[in-house]
């Protein structure tokens, strides 16, 4: 069904980052939107406040059967009561996965930008959208987190010129999209419950790039060796810091809560830390320069970026310590955010609270996780967050207790195990001192601890 002909849409699993953004987008475009989820959340509350009806819990009786399109999250299995009701009433032809739906909606736009890669998708998508907005290009964008500048994870433009979206690589979801531009941040081993190995990931990304039209554009990271062999016969533009690239950052400076770098004589400033954010900004600068956006406009757009929800988010204070929440759940991201915290707060003690996300990821990347906490002064590892529908019996033998022992043996520093949220808060109450930085990271529900600590002050 063509998107323009669709008037009524129902979202199964509407509380997810992408799903909520897509629901907001179509609601703002004047279509009737309703959805459901398995449990309430801050995202659900915000959707309801915006006038979107959300059914909780999900039952076979709650789903309307007279809608034009049904969109379901990848986290919702076929056995879900609402999906089963659609099958019972022969409505599966009207059912689309989230990425299938996004792929259909993208077709309406002339310039379709997909931000892809293992790390940096959310931040790069948000940064690019702000730069395009600053250039008065008026993009429509779906971001995988709340952008502070918008207080939303979606921006709806008034034209059908530019659409910007994150393109998740899990289960090769990005192959469902129809981009004319791909920004590829980097490639690493991840989602090994689906991919066989790194080669499988690389082959899948090459298949994805092969979908670009001949007049399309590939923006790639010259410093990322794992994506270096991927190719595109059309326009390819590279960016980097160390390897020779079309767009390069030089004169990198880190001072207080600001970092600066120079590209082609223009000095850019970022209000977020870490070399990984310089790479994210470089990807944006590269595409923006390709569009002919003046450096002054790019600079202003990047300066407006002050973070997103759970991406080095300054939540508040607890016992005189600064509390930061982050989504990092891959070893590279964990190491990167700890290093970034040290850069931002060089003279302060870093207490790292980490909740591993998914047992298979913890097991497959175990050795790399043991190296990821080297720059933390004290580490608390909470029990692994089980991901519904993605945990296998073969992986149930892995626990955070094993990770705690391995990190402690390697680092020689204090590493503590926590079985649950309450124990984590107890350990923080015992160990946090004024002036510390408490970094709370993970892709599960560990972020609620940061909110609890600050709200109970």
Main beta-sheet strand count, sense and barrel state: 8 strands, mixed
Q: Count of DSSP E strands?
A: 22
CATH topology of the largest domain: UDP-N-acetylmuramoyl-L-alanine:D-glutamate ligase
Give the helix proportion (percent range).
Answer: 25-40%
Main attributes of the structure:
457 residues; alpha/beta; Rossmann fold; UDP-N-acetylmuramoyl-L-alanine:D-glutamate ligase; Protein-Tyrosine Phosphatase, Chain A; 8-stranded mixed β-sheet; 6-stranded mixed β-sheet; 32% helix; globular
Report what the structure shows:
- This protein has 457 residues and is an alpha/beta fold.
- An eight-stranded mixed beta sheet has the order 8-7-9-6-10-11-12-13, with helices on both faces. Strands 17-18-22-19-20-21 form a six-stranded mixed beta sheet, sandwiched between helices.
- It has three domains: 3-101, Rossmann fold; 109-303, UDP-N-acetylmuramoyl-L-alanine:D-glutamate ligase; 313-455, Mur ligase, C-terminal domain (Protein-Tyrosine Phosphatase, Chain A).
- A hairpin with a 4-residue loop joins strand 7 (140-147) and strand 8 (152-155).
- The protein has helices at 17-28, 42-49, 81-88, 98-106, 121-134, 198-209, 275-290, 295-303, 331-344, 359-364, 366-371, 400-411, 421-431, 447-455, and strands at 8-12, 32-36, 53-55, 69-72, 95-97, 111-116, 140-147, 152-155, 162-167, 181-184, 217-221, 235-240, 247-248, 250-255, 258-263, 266-270, 313-318, 321-326, 350-354, 378-382, 414-418, 437-441.
- Helix 5 packs across helix 7 (275-290) and helix 5 (121-134) crosses helix 8 (295-303).
- Helices cover 32% and strands 24% of the residues.
């Amino acid at each position: 069904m063509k998107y323009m002909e669709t008037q009524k849409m129902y979202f199964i699993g509407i509380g997810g980052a992408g799903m909520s953004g897509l629901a907001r987008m179509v609601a703002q475009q004047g279509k009737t939107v309703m959805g459901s989820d398995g449990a309430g959340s801050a995202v659900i509350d915000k959707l309801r406040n915006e006038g979107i009806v959300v059914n909780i819990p999900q039952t076979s009786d709650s789903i309307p059967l007279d809608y034009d399109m049904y969109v379901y999250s990848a986290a919702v299995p076929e056995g879900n009561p609402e999906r089963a009701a659609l099958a019972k009433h022969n409505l599966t032809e009207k059912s689309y996965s989230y990425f299938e739906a996004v792929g259909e909606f993208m077709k309406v736009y002339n310039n379709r930008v997909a931000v892809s890669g293992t790390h940096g998708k959310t931040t790069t998508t948000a940064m690019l959208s702000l730069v395009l907005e600053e250039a008065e290009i008026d993009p429509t964008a779906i971001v995988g987190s709340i952008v502070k500048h918008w207080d939303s994870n979606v921006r709806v433009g008034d034209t059908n010129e530019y659409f910007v979206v994150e393109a998740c690589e899990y289960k090769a979801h990005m192959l469902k999209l129809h981009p004319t531009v791909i920004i590829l941040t980097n490639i690493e081993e991840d989602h090994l419950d689906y991919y066989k190995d790194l080669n499988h990931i690389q082959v899948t990304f090459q298949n994805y790039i092969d979908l670009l039209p001949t007049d399309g554009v590939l923006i790639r990271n010259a410093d990322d060796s794992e994506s270096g062999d991927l190719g595109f016969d059309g326009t390819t533009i590279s960016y980097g810091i160390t390897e020779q690239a079309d767009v390069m950052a030089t004169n990198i400076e880190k001072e207080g809560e600001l970092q600066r770098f120079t590209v082609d004589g223009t000095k850019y400033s970022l209000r977020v830390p870490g070399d990984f954010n310089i790479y994210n900004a470089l990807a944006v600068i590269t595409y923006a320069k390709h569009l002919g956006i003046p450096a002054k406009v790019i600079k202003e757009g990047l300066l407006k970026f002050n973070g997103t929800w759970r991406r080095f988010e300054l939540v508040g204070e607890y016992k005189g310590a600064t509390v930061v929440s982050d989504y990092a759940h891959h070893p590279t991201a964990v190491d990167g955010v700890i290093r970034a915290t040290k850069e931002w707060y060089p003279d302060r003690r870093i207490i790292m609270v980490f909740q591993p996300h998914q047992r298979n990821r913890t097991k497959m990347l175990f050795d790399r996780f043991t190296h990821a906490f080297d720059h933390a002064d004290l580490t608390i590892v909470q029990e692994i967050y089980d991901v519904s529908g993605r945990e296998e019996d073969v992986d149930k033998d892995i626990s955070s207790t094993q990770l705690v022992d391995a990190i402690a043996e390697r680092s020689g520093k204090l590493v503590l195990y926590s079985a649950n949220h309450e124990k984590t808060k107890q350990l923080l109450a015992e160990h946090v001192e004024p002036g510390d930085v408490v970094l709370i990271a993970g892709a599960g529900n560990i972020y609620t601890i940061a909110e609890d600590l600050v709200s109970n002050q």
